[in-house]
Recover the amino acids of this structure.
């Protein structure tokens, strides 16, 4: 099964418009307060099974949200509530998820390939990290992993949700990869990263590149769980099979829960620099060779 095409920008934009209409278009956004204003009862549910992030319950015209607490991160819990708000606010969602009354069980966090789950995830991303305020905040933070950590602090979001949003917003070439063991869970590349000639996008289930820092880092499961971190200079080729040699930085941090690792790859070189170089080479090579 392939990932359904979901227009992530469109669903984030719907969330941002809602924030403007509610007069809540600033960071940090409080999804609990939005639910309260809608008359939705929100409660913690500590005994959910693994993978379940929350539930939306419909009874007549009344709605309730339960959110999982097995992951203690506030960012995760806020995202879970925002995801359920997505099902509540997005056109067509209540009709698709409920035949009359009932309970919808969610697996938020870009983990499933279900269209409605992904739409609610992008809505949650836009709700907690609306474009305007997020871009403004981005101008005040550093680079790479440091930037993502500072933004997570400002937005009250998890490191992974922030990293995905960062990769989809940043102007510079950047990639974020979440992995478990020696396998890729998912990867997001910024537009400018994708512009590099020959860059291929790592897919779910791909084996980590042997020469990457992440592959070495993940052999120590204890380090991943202890949220250890590391960084190294690498070639972009190691990760993405870029046609030309481009210097990059690979930063890695263990995410603790579930033994996942977040990798952030950035480079100061742009695909435009690369084009210029190629063009120069093309222009001069024949003269030198003759
Ligand atoms: Zn859901």
């Amino acid at each position: 099964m392939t990932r359904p095409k979901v227009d992530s920008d469109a669903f984030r934009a719907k969330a941002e418009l809602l924030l403007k209409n509610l007069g809540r278009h600033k960071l940090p956004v409080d999804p609990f307060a939005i639910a309260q204003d809608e008359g939705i009862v929100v409660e913690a549910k500590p005994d959910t099974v693994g993978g379940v992030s929350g539930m939306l319950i419909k009874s007549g015209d009344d709605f309730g949200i339960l959110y999982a607490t097995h992951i203690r991160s506030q960012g995760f819990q806020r995202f879970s509530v925002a995801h359920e708000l997505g099902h509540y606010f997005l056109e067509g969602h209540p009709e698709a998820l409920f035949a009359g009354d009932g309970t919808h069980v969610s697996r938020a966090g870009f983990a499933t390939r279900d269209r409605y789950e992904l739409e609610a995830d992008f809505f949650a991303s836009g709700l907690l990290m609306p474009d305007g305020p997020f871009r403004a905040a981005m101008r005040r933070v550093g680079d790479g992993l440091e930037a993502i950590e500072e933004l997570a602090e400002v937005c009250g979001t998890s490191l992974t949700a922030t990293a995905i949003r960062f990769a989809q917003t940043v102007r510079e070439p950047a990639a974020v990869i979440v992995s478990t063991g020696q396998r890729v869970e998912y990867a997001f590349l910024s537009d400018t990263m994708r512009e590099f000639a020959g860059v291929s996008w790592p897919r779910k289930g791909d084996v980590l590149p042997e020469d990457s820092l992440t592959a070495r880092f993940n052999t120590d499961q204890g380090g991943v769980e202890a949220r250890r971190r590391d960084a190294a200079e690498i070639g972009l080729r190691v990760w993405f099979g870029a046609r030309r040699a481009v210097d990059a930085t690979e930063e890695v941090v263990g995410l603790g829960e579930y033994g996942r690792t977040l990798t952030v790859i950035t480079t100061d070189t742009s695909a435009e620099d690369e084009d210029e170089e190629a063009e120069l080479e093309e222009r001069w090579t024949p003269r030198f060779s003759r």
Notes: The chain has a mean pLDDT of 90. Residues 182 and 208 are 5 Å apart (CA to CA). The chain has two domains: 8-132, 172-290. The radius of gyration is 21 Å.
